[in-house]
Amino acid sequence: MSGAADPVIRRGAAPLVLSLPHVGTAIPEAIEARLVSPWLARKDADWWIGELYAFAADLDATIVRAHWSRTVIDLNRDPTGVSLYPGQATTGLCPVETFDGEALYRPGEEPDAKEIEARIDTFYRPYHKALADEISRLRNLHERIVVYDCHSIRSVISRLFAGKLPVFNLGTNSGASADPALMARVADIIAASGRSHVVDGRFKGGYITRHYGRPENGVHALQMELACRGYIRESLGPVSEADWPVAFDADFAAPTRGTLRAVLAACLDFAKG
């Protein structure tokens, strides 16, 4: 297995790092040959999040972007395999099912423990080394920095959460991953959007937020999980290969992009003190 194409890095000098761990759609041929469906394997990608946050380059932010699909390995899970949400339905480090519970692999083709360890070495560690290196580089330049983890998910997935997910889901590991002043400023911005929002609701922040958020060391981490309807023309409920993913429409996404631009500006203002 080769991880040579991962990760993709845009280096900036501002005290802001964007992590995009679930935008990748590439799957090595040897793995794809064992899957039930290439579409199912890419179904739960964070579709168009890179396009939505493209403006971050204008802020001179550093952007670390995954190349490989989360089906290969989930870069926002604990590498030990420990669940981040005990007692709640979720997918694992090397998922064997979709968010909706559909099998990803043909019977008997699921990765075993040895293969999972190999995938950690090949795909997981390079992303996290790159992210850690960029955090260290910027922390050496600035007294404090913000790590902003970018995510999206379909608005209705009954297996994972009840009802319709709020549009803006800010995760702070229950207040442990960032300064309260930063969290409050971002929470005020998403509240002012007029759209549904929650702080530390169903999505409190994954491994990236929890692992890298060290306010006492000048590294403040936030996760933003967006319900897809906030930036694409999502039909609520089950999806099929014929209708998912929908195309990205910059005009439709503009209001949410405006809110996110204000959020990242607040992160920069906070970091610069």
TrEMBL record:
Keywords: Hydrolase. The keyword Transit peptide does not apply. Gene3D superfamilies: Zn-dependent exopeptidases. SUPFAM superfamilies: Zn-dependent exopeptidases. It holds the Pfam family FGase. Transmembrane segments: none annotated. The keyword Hydrolase applies. One of its GO terms (molecular function) is hydrolase activity. This is N-formylglutamate amidohydrolase.
